[in-house]
Amino acid sequence: MAAKDGHTIIPAPSNQEQAATPANNGDTAKLGKPQSGSRPPYSAFSPGRRRLILGIVTAAGFFGPLAGGIYLPALPTLQRTFNTSVTVINATVSVFMGVLAIAPLFWGSLADYGGRKPLYTVSLVIFIVANILLAALPANLAALFILRIVQGFGAASVLSLGAGTVADVTEPKSRASAMSIVLLGPQLGPVLGPLLGGAITGSASWRWTFGFLGMLASPITIRRINDALAITCSAVYVLLQFCLPETLRSIVGNGSLYSETSLIIKPVFRQPPVVDPAKFPRPPPPTLLGLIKLLRYPPIVIVCLNNAMLFAAYYAVNVTIPTYLEDDYGFTTTQVGVVYLAPGLSLMAGSLISGRISDRHRALFVKNNPGSPPLAEHRLHLQIPGMLISLGGILIYGWFVHFHIHVGAVIVSTGIGENPFKTLVPFHRALHFLS
Question: Rounded to two decimals, what is the model's pTM?
């Protein structure tokens, strides 16, 4: 099938086609020509281009959790600025995380139907505008709640689009390792977010926590913020437009459209389909009923409930850290931001470790069960050790701060609460991508 730009797209053949294809004779093999019965590669993207795609998605995934983390050290300051209670100001964290949890269902469904790149572009613009408004508008509690909702909606897309992009360009046997790389972005947000938030709020203003995030739009800097960081934020949007191709398989197949093109491409908001719909069928348009029907699959319910408990506990700890450390231990806002390195680095370590564990487990299953396809739920039990250790660390944290144990022990307990094995859980958010 010929594409509009002259490139030829070779869709993956069906099983019937492969069976019906006659074997080539020896002369063809001697001439070095590809056999007509050979199957096209799962992904035609070069290894370098796949690494670039994963790198861009990883960088884009950094900003959602960064928006959640950069805000935490400023909670006591915001409470005083808006003249409200601890409960109300903590609710601004809750609404952000609530939207960050639900919105991926919307973005993920649209991405499977209309393509990945348009949604990356639109959602990032929403995120940028929300941050600019949060930094510029007068202090108003209602506006803070509304714009945090909008900010979370824009930030949530990469959490689901990233898993889809990995599935587009990576074979099942290597997806968990690829996801471990992509998850470095979301895991790096809780590491650098509080650190940056504490430094910015302590030396400038809470508004610049949102102003810094808004610098995604352009390389604007202020003296109090490292120029290189601002330029990096701005570069992500540019890279997304000029270096991230469309990867949805129902639109571009295995990506052979880009096999002969440069790494820098002309920005196209929406790539028209260039593959045979019979070979790469497009899923039906997303509906609310279709999303609800997913809950009929028990592994999805198990993973959702487990994620809900762990991340609720995670943010229950994180929103209390500034209050306890400032009131009971005399920490400054900047020092509070540094403390968040303990749980953040633990999350990052888990992102790398758990991907390899998951892929190794799949490989052992295939080896020990020849002829039996590995199902997604075969990986479910891997999250049990991380869940138990994490909940234990959270209980220890609560006990330590209640009895005013040494601050070093409190910091260690936050790292245990975000132990490396807990990161096995995010790999199961998209079970159908991994097996």
Answer: 0.69
Residues in CB range of 289: below 8 A, 6 or more apart: none
Token pair belonging to 230: 């601002």
| pLDDT tens-place string over residues 285-322 | 767 777 778 788 887 788 778 777 777 777 778 888 88
Structure token digits, residue 116: 């990945």
Across-strand partners of 2? 8
User: Which of 336, 325, 309, 337 is closest to 407 using CA atoms?
Assistant: 325
CA–CA gap between residue 166 and residue 433 (Å, rounded): 8
Q: Quick one: which of 220, 185, 190, 229 has its CA closest to 61? A: 185
Please choose, from the candidates 337, 345, 347, 331, the residue with its C-alpha nearest in 3D space to the C-alpha of residue 407. 331
Q: What 3-state class would DSSP assign to 2? A: strand
The residues, any chain, with a CB within 8 Å of residue 233's CB and separated by 6 or more, are 63, 212, 213, 215, 216
Tell me the C-alpha distance between 193 and 340, whole Å. Answer: 9
Q: Is the dihedral of CA 197, 200, 206, 212 positive or negative?
A: negative
Return the SS3 of 140. Answer: coil
List, for residues 87-97, the tens digit of each pLDDT value: 898 888 889 88
At 8, is the secondary structure helix, strand, or coil? strand
